[in-house]
Write a structure and sequence with these properties.
single chain, alpha+beta, 8-stranded mixed β-sheet, 4 helices, 16 strands, Glyoxalase bleomycin resistance protein dioxygenase
Length: 258
């Protein structure tokens, strides 16, 4: 559906940081059909991803001076006041990494992290509310936090955002749903010892029409499957994919859209 305004605390934007902006543009265009419109910025490359003219997210080139930073996706959450939210994050044990920065007439942003180090961003909209489409094919539909201390993380995020943490009965998984006014918009899962040293992180989920076919297509474009197509009872079929440069995201065929 097309979106013109986000509720406070909703995931409103996604952004890809890539070491090869041209390769990433080609990969996501071939995979999702997204077009990329490059924006003029000093000393770098920044593009907006769109679908049929509607902005979905953005991508920027990681500076060559920072080769240690892996390619990654970043999720933005809508806030009313970035500075006040940053203050709440710091008070609750999180950190500020960048900003707040005014982005022209579009809005104000900041990059932050939770107590376990999972990074995310804040967006105080002015003239740009965020992604114009969500919940339809080839667009964002869910965001998920993977962490090691769900109880502590639930305490942090419910202090920072107007979220409710609702335990969810997913077989074999310690899972929590994030809700705003009774509507689920994301989740949190506990990372098990077999995850090794993977740090806590947020991951976006995008809707696809056929999870298996999509995963195979991604592999054909140079991606790797972190989690092969798997069923989530009563929800749908999902896969976790690392793009050709290692940025991870998930795709899901939702039963509700069948």
């Amino acid at each position: 559906m097309r979106i013109t305004q986000y509720a406070l605390g909703q995931a409103c934007w996604v952004e890809l940081a890539s070491h090869d902006w041209q390769g990433a543009q080609a990969f996501y265009h071939a995979l999702f059909g997204w077009n990329a419109v490059e924006m003029a910025i000093p000393n770098g490359h920044f593009s907006l991803f769109n679908l049929e003219g509607d902005d979905l997210g953005a991508m920027y080139q990681i500076p060559e001076s920072e080769p240690q930073i892996p390619s990654h996706w970043r999720i933005y959450f809508a806030v009313k006041d970035v500075e006040a939210t940053v203050a709440a994050i710091l008070a609750a044990g999180g950190q500020l990494h960048m900003g707040p920065h005014v982005v022209g007439e579009a809005g104000v942003m900041a990059q932050v992290s939770d107590p376990e180090g999972a990074r995310f961003a804040l967006w105080q909209a002015k003239n740009h509310s965020g992604s114009r489409r969500q919940g339809e094919e080839n667009t964002l539909c869910w965001v998920e936090l993977a962490c090691r201390e769900p109880s502590a993380e639930a305490s942090f995020y419910t202090q920072v955002f107007p979220w409710t943490a609702l335990p969810s009965h997913v077989p074999g998984i310690d899972y929590t749903e994030w809700q705003i006014d009774g509507q689920s918009m994301g989740g949190m899962m506990k990372m098990m010892p077999e995850w090794g040293e993977i740090p806590a992180h947020w991951m976006p989920y995008f809707v696809v029409a056929d999870c298996d076919a999509f995963a195979a297509k991604a592999q054909g474009l140079g991606a790797q499957l972190c989690v092969p197509p798997s069923d989530i009872p009563d929800v749908g079929r999902f896969a976790v994919i690392a793009d050709a440069q290692g940025a991870t995201f998930a795709v899901i065929k939702l039963n509700a859209l069948s």
